Amino acid sequence: MGRFSRLGTELYDGRRSIDFVGRKWTWYTISGVLIVVALLGLFVKGLNLGIEFKGGVEYSVSLPKSEITQGNADKIRDAVAGTGIQAADAPVVNTSGETIKVTTKTMSNDDADKVSAAIADEMNVPESKISTSEVGASWGHEVANRAVKGLIIFLILVVLLIWGYFREWKMSVAGIVALAHDILITVGVYALSGFEVTPATVTGFLTILGFSLYDTVVVFDKIRENTKNLRQSRRTYAQLANLAVNQTLVRSINTSVVALLPVGALLYVGVVNLGDGPLKDLALALFVGMAVGAYSSIFIATPLLVQLKAREKEVTEQERRAKARQKRDIDRYANVPVFSEGMPVSEEPSGFGGTAVLTAEDDDEPETPQRAERRPEATGSGRTAPAQKAPVEQSGSAKRNQPSRQPRSKRTK
Fold first, then answer.
1. Are residues 35 and 65 in the same domain?
2. What DSSP assignment string belongs to 142-164?
């Protein structure tokens, strides 16, 4: 941990730097590949929407824990499909805790009773052990529409918040792109994994958007602090933005790891111990979204912001100044001005006795450098000695006995 702490200090001070902004095309390529894979999974395999969104009938069969097996789940699936009811020809059967859940399409009450009886006969349990819940298709569509509206309102508020806080619309654009990046990859993971999308999943989506936005705002705030006095800085905007990412890197890693550990534990418990349920859906969305959100805040949002501001006048001028300083610092003595026609008046360095003035008596005659009148030399110090007032004679004190070094006790005798 001591080495990690020293690394964080060196990154914050700028003694060590990771070039996040300069390698933006590498990060863009990685994100592009992930997004393409996510879109393929979304359009080819599709999302496994829960009963809350598409409507249907759900049966929960309560059994002893020893009988909650995949074999019994397969028996129930065959029994439900064998009823001959069209809405139950492709049931979805999952194990969850001490129950086996069966989901079918929307059907009439009589058909629902037939399916319940078939399950009871197959598992040799009374129908009282089977609970039935029906969700209408219209209610499922209403839940889906409200989820989409909530997401849109959230994104609008995010744009206004970042724009109002930083006074910079380009930061809002970079933040929204990072959020869209996180949503696409998380949705693609759900499509590829086959996890069921439930209202708990939507809650997880909104939570990860808030986490990703928080991390992005922290980095942007550090960028604003570093670039507050851009003209007085010796670095370009890209260098200062990259410094901000390095300064917040350790904080981002620490907060992400601390957040992912409990969420990973929830995901493990939800998948291994509890089986199908809202805890698993919520944990997967949180785990994937937090990991991708930390990545996008560092590797996507900041490089994109620098790219959007690259053509601003203040940024380009600062880049020219920084390059000129860097070129001058390589060899200071090579940067010597050369006289040319029309050169402005320049002062001669102090110590050479005056100021060089360029004058021209006529516009037709070439200008020749002339020296201004020299100031009178200082007397008593400097280059010349003061004038002698009298000849030098021997002083009367020359014949006087000079004091000798004696102890203080004998000096008064």
1. no
2. HHHHHHHHHHHHHHHHHHHHHHH
